[in-house]
Write a structure and sequence with these properties.
Elements (H helix, E strand, L loop, with lengths): L10 E5 L27 H13 L4 E5 L9 H9 L8 E6 L4 H11 L3 E5 L5 H8 L4 H14 L2 E7 L9 H11 L2 E5 L18 H11 L2 E3 L8 E6 L4 E6 L12 E4 L4 E3 L7 E3 L1 H6 L2 H14 L25
Parallel strand pairs: 1-2, 1-10, 2-3, 3-4, 4-5, 5-6, 6-9
Antiparallel strand pairs: 7-8, 8-9, 10-11, 11-12
Helix pairs in contact: 1-2, 2-3, 3-5
The protein binds S-adenosylmethionine and iron/sulfur cluster.
C-alpha cells in the first residue's frame, strides 16, 4: 500500500473493541454508551481484514481498543493473528491498560507477541483510581509483573497531565530503569468526548523534557517508528524514553500507518476525518471491494495532520488507539 505521497503503509493499528473496564478522564466519559455488537467487526472479520492488509504489505499490527483484553475471544484472535508471524507479518503487538494481563500474559507470549505497551499514568493508588475513575493499581502492577515474567518486553505509556502526575514523571522513569521497561510520555490529545476540560491538564512535553534533562542525560536515539514519537536513550538507566507529541506534525512525512476502528472504519490520519467504511464491504463483498476502498483511502491520505487542543472529535475516534510506537 503506497499513498499519493509515496509513503509505504506497513503498520496498522487495529481496534478490537470500543469497550473498556476503565474510564480514564482524558479518554472516556463516566457513563459510556458502547456500540451494539452488530456494529463491531466479528473476530473472524478482524482476521479477514488483517489478512487483506498483510497481503498488501503490512508487516506490523498493533491490537488496541478500548481495552483489547476485555474483548471476549481475544485469545482466539491473538493466536490466529500470531500464526501469520513469519508469513508476511513481522510483528504483532498490543496496547493495553494491563488490568487483564495476569490472566493473559502467557497467552500473548505463546501466540508470538514479544512487546506490549501498558498504560500507567500513576504509581500512586489513589491517583491511579482518580485518573482511571475505577482502576486498581495493584492489579495493573501485578499484570505488568506477569507480562515481564512471561518474557514480554514492556513499554509504559504515561499521559503527562499538568497538576495530576507531573511530579511522578521523573520517578516513573527511574522505576522503569529498575524494571527494564521503556517509557513513553504522551501529550494529551483532543480525542473522544469527555466531560473534562483538557486544556486544564495540558502539559507540553517540551517543558517536561527540559525538566528531565536537568536530572538525566538524554541521548537522541536514531529509532524511528514512523509515528509521532521521538526517542532518547537515558544514560545510566539502560531504557529508552519516548515523547509523543501528536499536536505537532513533525513526522508526517514518514507516516507509515493507518488506523482501523472496531467498527471497521479506517482512518488515514488521526488528525483528519478522511475515512473509509469497510465493515459492510467485508460483509457483502469481500476482499475485492475492501481493496478498492483501501485504494481510495490511500489516494486521499492527507500529507499531515493538525489538531487544536480544544477541538472536539467525533465519538468513533474515541475507539481508536492513538499512541504507542
Ligand atoms: C486509547 S488507549 C487503548 C488501549 C488501552 N486501553 C490502553 O489504555 O492502553 C491507547 C493509549 O491512548 C492514550 N490516550 C487515550 N486518550 C488520550 C488522549 N486524549 N490524549 C492522549 N493519549 C490518550 C492512553 O493513555 C493509552 O496509552
Ligand atoms: S485510555 Fe485505555 S484504559 Fe483508559 S479509558 Fe481509554 S481505552 Fe480505557
Amino acid at each position: 500500500m503506497i499513498d499519493s505521497f509515496g509513503r509505504h503503509i506497513t503498520y496498522v493499528r487495529l481496534s478490537v473493541t470500543d469497550r473498556c473496564d476503565l474510564r480514564c478522564r482524558y479518554c472516556m466519559a463516566e457513563h459510556m454508551a458502547f456500540l451494539p455488537k452488530k456494529d463491531i467487526l466479528s473476530l473472524e472479520e478482524i482476521a479477514e481484514l488483517a489478512d487483506i492488509f498483510i497481503a498488501r504489505g503490512v508487516t506490523r499490527i498493533r491490537l488496541t481498543g478500548g481495552e483489547p483484553l476485555v474483548r471476549r475471544g481475544i485469545d482466539i484472535l491473538v493466536s490466529e493473528l500470531g500464526s501469520r508471524i513469519g508469513r508476511g507479518l513481522d510483528e504483532l503487538t498490543m496496547t493495553t491498560n494491563g488490568t487483564q494481563l495476569e490472566r493473559y500474559a502467557d497467552m500473548l507470549f505463546d501466540a508470538g507477541v514479544r512487546r506490549i505497551n501498558v498504560s500507567l499514568d500513576s504509581r500512586d493508588a489513589d491517583r491511579f483510581r482518580h485518573v482511571t475513575r475505577r482502576g486498581e493499581l495493584k492489579q495493573v502492577l501485578a499484570g505488568i509483573d506477569a507480562a515481564s515474567g512471561a518474557g514480554l518486553k514492556i513499554k509504559i505509556n504515561m499521559v503527562a497531565l499538568k497538576g495530576v502526575n507531573e511530579d511522578e514523571i521523573a520517578p516513573m522513569l527511574r522505576w522503569c530503569g529498575t524494571q527494564g521497561h521503556d517509557l513513553t510520555l504522551i501529550e494529551t490529545m483532543p480525542l473522544g468526548e469527555v466531560e473534562e476540560d483538557r486544556t486544564e491538564h495540558y502539559l507540553p512535553l517540551s517543558v517536561v523534557r527540559e525538566q528531565l534533562e536537568r536530572e538525566f542525560e538524554l541521548v537522541p536515539s536514531l529509532a524511528r517508528t514512523g509515528g509521532p514519537a521521538r526517542y532518547y536513550e537515558v544514560d545510566g538507566l539502560g531504557v529508552r524514553l519516548g515523547f509523543i507529541t501528536p499536536l505537532t506534525h513533525n513526522f508526517c512525512d514518514g507516516c507509515n500507518r493507518i488506523r482501523v476502528a472496531a467498527t471497521g472504519t479506517v482512518f488515514g490520519c488521526l488528525g483528519h476525518d478522511q475515512r473509509v467504511e469497510l465493515r459492510d464491504l467485508l460483509r457483502s463483498g469481500g476482499a475485492a471491494s475492501v481493496n478498492e476502498a483501501l485504494d481510495l483511502l490511500l489516494a486521499g491520505k492527507p500529507k499531515g495532520h493538525q489538531f487544536r487542543i480544544d477541538a472536539a472529535r467525533p465519538a468513533v475516534e474515541r475507539h481508536m488507539s492513538v499512541t504507542g510506537g
